[in-house]
Amino acid sequence: MTNAMRNPDAKHKDFGALIGLIPANPRFLPSDIDMVYERNGCFLFGEWKRNGEALGGGQRILLRKLAMQPRTVVLLIVGDTDNGMNVDELYYIDPSEKDPVLLGGGIETLKATISEWYEAANKVNR
Predict the structure, then answer these.
(1) Are 18 and 29 in contact (CB under 8 A)?
(2) Phi (first) and psi of residue 101, to 5 degrees
(3) Distance CA 25, CA 77 (A)
(4) Digit-coded pLDDT (tens) for 38-47
(5) 78 vs 12, 18, 50, 59, 106, CA distance in Å?
(6) Which of 10, 15, 95, 103 fits 90 for a cystine, CB–CB 3.0-4.6 Å?
(7) Per-residue pLDDT tens for 49-104?
(8) For residue 23, what pLDDT is reported?
């Protein structure tokens, strides 16, 4: 399988230097997003978590608030890309629901979801 990362040497960012930047909220730190698409002003975000890796409270809030934005879809993907792309579970972040909505599992479910999003976004007039 080809490595499609634009920068395969990219490392996780260390935001430690920003701890305490906001004195009233010293734990306020950036979050990273693992996957993002844009088409005609429509966005699809994907956050990857390894099996058993918890979604933090702040990140849960961020993803839900992001999902509330117009023309925005947010997915939570449980799996990894260590040896190919493995998708154990795929969730949709529905801003009206407390918990993410399970869409299914497997790479084909992820591909179909992305393709469906693209087709809908492709019909949107900017």
Answers:
(1) yes
(2) -100, 125
(3) 29
(4) 999 999 999 9
(5) 18, 28, 6, 15, 10
(6) 103
(7) 999 998 888 899 999 999 999 999 999 999 999 999 999 999 999 999 989 999 99
(8) 95
Q: What's the CA angle centered on 31, arms 65 and 85, to 5 degrees? A: 95
Distance CA 64, CA 74 (A): 8
The domains of the chain are located at 31-122
Single-letter code of the amino acid located at 96? S
Q: CB-hemisphere CA count at 13 Å for 121?
A: 18
pLDDT of residue 1: 44
Strands (E), 40-100: 42-49, 72-80, 86-92
Per DSSP, which regions of the chain are E strands?
Answer: 35-39, 42-49, 72-80, 86-92, 101-104
